[in-house]
Each structure stands twice: as structure tokens, then as C-alpha cells.
Amino acid sequence: TGEISLINEGKLTTCTHLPYKPFQMSEGGKVVGFDVDLVDLVADELGVKQEITDTPFEGIQSGELLNSGKCDVAAAGMTILPVREQNMDFSDPYFEATQALLVKKGSPYRSLADLRGKKLGTQLGTTGEEYAKQNQDANGYEIIQFEDLGLLTTAVLTGQVDAAINDNGVLYDFVKDNPETEVSVEFDTGEQYGIAVRTGNDALRGKINDVLKKAKESGEYDRIYEKWFGK
Ligand code: ARG
Predict the structure, then answer these.
(1) Which residues pair with 13 in a beta bridge?
(2) Half-sphere exposure (CA, 13 Å, Cβ side) for 2?
(3) Which of 18, 21, 78 to mutate to test the pocket of ligand 1 (most atoms within 8 A of CB)?
């Protein structure tokens, strides 16, 4: 692999946080998804196999897991943010997202203001949680935190929360499988996902950017998009 050194010989070790369908999820004992396919292209290019570690999102978004040498890359539908860039380096953007609300179909909660006195579920350490906190005083809802997207979306189904905030892509995917729910509003937070490496690992970051660029040019990116987001 030339100048690129990997923490485990012959492997590209990826930290992610499951489930975040369709970006990463377990299926038949294997981790699959949009991000998995993209990072597989990088692994192929390096002539190694991708090995995926599931770990809480907090340690991913803080850069802790990258900096302590637990993984070579973090690929977790993670939004590129200036505060995160202080602790890790991001690839070029590979996906766009905005925050959105998941509610039970036909529910009256179609804005943050509608949630006054109600319960809003968030996912720990995410941009959605940050957005909910920033707007809490103005809108007077209670925030209930969940460790992962599975627990968060289940809380909407069971009525434990009145609405949940998360990225639009994963919520629209959830609604496809759960037609008793809907996305009632999007907030236009203008987010972009990046694949992260340890601060200063320019060799690996450069390789990831090359692979993303090539995949976009060749149609491979569109094929992967269609596979996970098509009908
Ligand atoms: N895009 C959001 C963020 O960066 C949520 C990402 C959550 N990803 C996950 N695999 N759990 O904060």
C-alpha cells in the first residue's frame, strides 16, 4: 500500500455506528450499506479488505477512536462540521443531508413550535441533537436522548416520544419500511457527509478523495446510490 500505513496489516479498519440504514446496518450477520460500499472501493484500491467495527457514535464524532488508533477511517453518515474538523480530517463531501422530523402518520407535529410541552427524541452526539438543543428554549419541548437510530425510531412507533429528529435520508428510508410513520418537516440544515481519517493522515485522505472522484466519474457512485436509495 505504498506510503499509506494501516493500523492492522492488510486491512482497512472502519469505525461505524449501527444501525444507520441505509448507510450501515447488520444483515445476516454482515455489515452492509451505502457507506460500506464506498469504503470497499477504497479498500479495493489499497488491495486490502475492509474490517468494520461497531462503536458508539460519541467516540466517532469526537475523533477519539481515530486518534487512539482504533480505526483507519470513520464512515458513519457523519456530517462534516468545523468543531469535528478540529479532531479529525474529512474527505470531500459524498452525500447531502438536512435534519427532519419523524412522526406517526397524520400527527399534528409539523414544526418545532408544534412540539411545545411535547417529547422530542434525539440520537446521542448527532447534529440533530445539537439542532434540537439550540432550538429548545424557543420552542419548549422536552428532549429524550437515545443511543442509536433503532431505539429512536422505535420510540416514535411506541409513542414514547411525539417526534424524533434525525437526518432526512435515514428517516425517509425508515418511512418506506414503516408506512404508519411520516417525515412531517425538513429544516434545511445543509449538511454534508464525509469519511474521516486521523488528523494529518493526508495519504489516506487523498486516496479516499481519488476513489470518490473516480466513482462519481465512472457511474459507480450512481450505481451504489441506486442500490441503497432506489425504489
Ligand atoms: N449526520 C449526523 C451527524 O453527523 C448523524 C450521524 C449518525 N450516524 C450513525 N452511524 N449513527 O451527527
Answers:
(1) 51
(2) 7
(3) 78
C-alpha cell recorded at residue 55: 462503536
Give CA–CA dist 209/220, Å, rounded: 14
Pocket of ligand 1 (CB under 6 A): 16-17, 20, 24, 57, 61, 76-79, 97, 126-127, 149, 167
Domain 99-186 has CATH 3.40.190.10: yes
| pLDDT confidence of residue 30 | 96
| pLDDT tops 50 at residue 224 | yes
Total Cβ atoms within 10 A of residue 64:
16
CA of 148 to the centre of ligand 1 (A): 9
User: Do the domains 99-186 and 11-95+191-229 match in fold?
Assistant: yes
Which residue ranges make up each domain of the chain?
Answer: 11-95+191-229, 99-186
**150-202 tens-digit pLDDT:** 999 999 999 999 999 999 999 999 999 999 999 999 999 999 999 999 999 99
Whether 32 shows a pLDDT value over 80: the answer reads yes
Taking the C-alpha atoms of residue 75 and residue 23, their distance in angstroms, rounded to an integer, is 9
How far is it, in rounded angstroms, from Cα 120 to Cα 129?
A: 10
According to CATH, the topology of domain 11-95+191-229 is D-Maltodextrin-Binding Protein; domain 2 (3.40.190)
C-alpha atoms less than 13 angstroms from C-alpha of 59 in its C-beta half-sphere: 16
- Look at residues 24, 14, 23 and name the one whose alpha carbon lies nearest to residue 73: 14
Q: Amino acid identity of 221?
A: Y
